[in-house]
Design goal:
Helix content is 31%, strand content 21%. A 5-stranded parallel β-sheet has the order 5-2-1-9-20. It has a 5-stranded parallel β-sheet with strand order 11-18-12-13-14, covered by helices on one side. A 3-stranded antiparallel β-sheet has the order 6-7-8, with no helix packed on it.
Length: 449
């Protein structure tokens, strides 16, 4: 008798969703059917949209074609509700879909949160930004500020936009235009450590970009970007990073701004048979490579539930990404929370050198987008081009990350998120460092537990 197929439902059509499909299909001996639900018919690599106003090619992937290629049933609709007890998803068209395992990889909604500014949310704002460049070119606009609202913690796109704009202006001989970046961070991309921050600051200086750090932007009005502490910045236009949130999904436990709570194995809080990965989760760094890592962890749990002998890899977030600068790209690899493990260089640190460093999705997209036809073959993405961090260093980096973010959330009054980070740290380290035991008691009291 043929073994009954294990029913996997994946909600979403972004990096985490596609990485999960590839991971499941890589284990051929596990009989699993996959159904993917996504209201968008195209996969868009949002991280590359910063380059499109400057002539970068749009990168799209037809989801229906991708699903057909990997024996995945495709529904072009969103999840409306999740029923954990009977293990069913209700679609927006009112259809019920059974699952043995559900992966929530719906991503996050990008919205404007800085009054008076224009957000750069990705593909939907490419045309507007192209018009801004045209106005800069003819002098209708001379001063542009790029702003990071205090609510935004992952800031890489703003540095790319600022450097691309400054480089483009210099190439066109428009050296009298002024570009300023305003961020609440004490240094650019401070979450990735001092060496990365110093390199980005150097790149900004080389391009004549002014930096105002350590202050949050409040609003843009009458030619002024009003900032905390009275540090106003003159500007004709302000481009801001958007705020991220996840729409309400009945049946899924959601926290602040709708983000989905999950543990270090990406299992959703309070639900059996449900995992989450990518921008919809509570993890504050919203980056494609990390979304792919989360999908790998979640998929290992799903495959284990299906009967496969696999163990979820540990939650040790390492950011691998390419910083688009207007010159040669800078490849970074950072074991988050441990500055000593930061690398930023113009030489590729993995292969293929594509913007999203997903273990499976990166090579797949490189092949689909013909990158490998233009470059000499190199090592697989799973093998870094520099010696990888050893196990102990990765462990210490992940532990440091969890504890750092716990303290950040506690300072901001979000004790539930701070306690979640301590749970991650405890899972990594078996026990918490002694100095955090009293903190945990204090934060539990503050959270009303």
């Amino acid at each position: 008798m043929a073994q009954e197929e294990f029913q996997v439902v994946i909600a979403g059509g972004g990096v985490a969703a596609l990485e999960a499909v590839l991971a499941i299909r890589a284990l051929e001996e596990t009989p699993a059917s996959i159904e993917l639900l996504s209201p968008s018919r195209d996969f868009q690599l949002q991280a590359l949209t910063v380059a499109e106003p400057f002539g970068g090619d749009p990168r799209r992937l037809d989801l229906e074609q991708f699903c057909a290629e990997h024996d995945v049933a495709y529904r072009p609709e969103a999840v409306a509700e999740v029923w954990g007890g009977p293990q069913r998803v209700l679609t927006e068209r009112g259809e019920e879909v059974f699952y043995d395992a559900l992966l929530m990889a719906t991503g996050a909604r990008r919205t404007s949160i800085l009054p008076g500014s224009h957000p750069f949310r990705g593909a939907s704002d490419v045309a507007w930004f192209g018009n801004l460049l045209e106005r800069l070119n003819r002098g209708a606009v001379t001063d542009v500020a790029f702003a990071v609202p205090r609510q935004v913690k992952w800031t890489l796109p703003i540095w790319e936009l600022a450097m691309l704009t400054a480089s483009w202006l210099r190439e066109g001989g428009r050296t009298d235009r002024r570009i300023t970046v305003v961020t609440h961070e004490q240094a650019p991309l401070e979450v990735l450590g001092g060496s990365v921050s110093a390199r980005i600051a150097e790149l900004l200086s080389d391009r004549g970009v002014d930096l105002v750090a350590g202050t949050g932007a409040v609003r843009f009005e009458q030619g002024r970007l009003v900032c905390e502490g009275g540090k106003d910045v003159r500007a004709d236009e302000v481009v801001a990073l958007p705020g991220l949130s996840v729409p309400e999904i009945p049946g899924i436990p959601q926290g602040r701004h709708g983000f989905i709570g999950c543990d270090a194995e990406m299992r959703v809080d309070g639900l059996d048979h449900v995992w989450a990965a990518g921008d919809s989760t509570w993890f504050p760094i919203k980056q494609g490579g990390l979304a792919a890592q989360q999908a790998e962890i979640a998929t290992a749990g799903i495959l284990r539930a299906a009967g496969a002998e696999v163990e979820p890899p540990p939650f040790r977030p390492i950011v691998r990404g390419a910083l688009i600068t207007g010159g040669r790209p800078e490849f970074l690899r950072v074991a988050v929370g441990e500055d000593a493990d930061s690398l930023l260089t113009t030489s590729p640190l993995w292969w293929p050198p594509i913007k999203v460093a997903g273990p499976r999705l990166g090579p797949y997209l490189a092949q689909r987008w013909s990158l490998e036809e233009e470059d000499e073959p190199g090592p697989a993405l799973t093998q870094d081009l520099e010696p990888a961090e050893d196990e102990e260093q990765e462990h210490e980096a992940a532990l440091s990350l969890a504890l750092d973010f716990a303290e950040i959330d506690a300072r901001e009054g979000d004790y539930e998120e701070a306690l979640r980070w301590l749970d991650v740290a405890e899972r990594l380290n078996v026990t918490l460092p002694s100095e955090y035991l009293q903190m945990r008691d204090d934060w539990r009291a503050a959270a009303g537990r």
